[in-house]
Design goal:
This is CHAT domain-containing protein. The protein is globular, with a radius of gyration of 20 Å. The protein has a domain of 78 residues. The chain has 140 residues and is an alpha+beta fold.
Amino acid sequence: MHGSQERGLDIGITGELIDWESVIDSLRILNIKLNNELVILMTACHGLHAILPISFEKVAPFLCLIAPEQEIKIGRIEDRVPEFHRELFSSGSLVHACQKLGNEFNYFHSAEFLFKTLTGYVSVLKMAMRMKSKCVTTTE
C-alpha cells in the first residue's frame, strides 16, 4: 500500500486507487460500530492526509489517526511499528507507544480537533461581540 497526498491510497499489486474520502467513509462505518473508539495506525506515506475530507456534518471516521504526513521509508516503518505495538500492549499507553514511532508519525485526535476548533470559534465570536459593543458605545 502506498499513500499519495492528492490521490489517496494505492492498494495491492494492481495499484487500485482509493481516494481519501472513500477511505474516510469506510472508516466512519467501522467507527460508528465501535462507538467512536477506532484508533488507526496508518503506515502509508502521506497517511495523515486522510484527515482532509473530515466534515463536522458527519460522524468522526476515527477517534485518532497516527500516520506520516510525508513520505516514509519502509525501513523506518519496519523498525518503529513493532516497538509501537510492544509498548502499547505492555504499558497500555497510546501516548508512550506513539513516542516509539519517532517524528515521522503525527497524532490526530478527533475530539481534540473538535475542541480546538470550537474554542477558536468561541474566541472569535467573543472578540466580535466586544468590537460590536465598542462600536455601539462610541456611536451613542
